[in-house]
Amino acid sequence: MTDDPKTLRLQGALTIKTAPEIRAHLLAAFAEAKSAGRPVEIDIAEDCECDLTLPQLLLSAQATATRNGIDLRIRAPRQAQFLTTLERAGLSAAIDGGSLTITNGDQR
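RE: above sequence
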């Protein structure tokens, strides 16, 4: 197993309208990572436009990754709209509790 992650950059509109496309990209990244024995890193752009669909999709992705033995990492800058969306939805506790691993994108 290599530590070099398969990186999936999410940017632009990350909403219910784009969820099927994002899901397809996630599943493709998981398939590639699993066959290569690599982790998957989701890099969320600071200027993305997101709604509650993105956190829900990422919680589902975490469950899928766990079932498939894939290490999933999520990066989001401190000022990203994604983190604000988590807080407003009351989901920051789920993140702090370890359901998703959020790495501050500023610490690369």
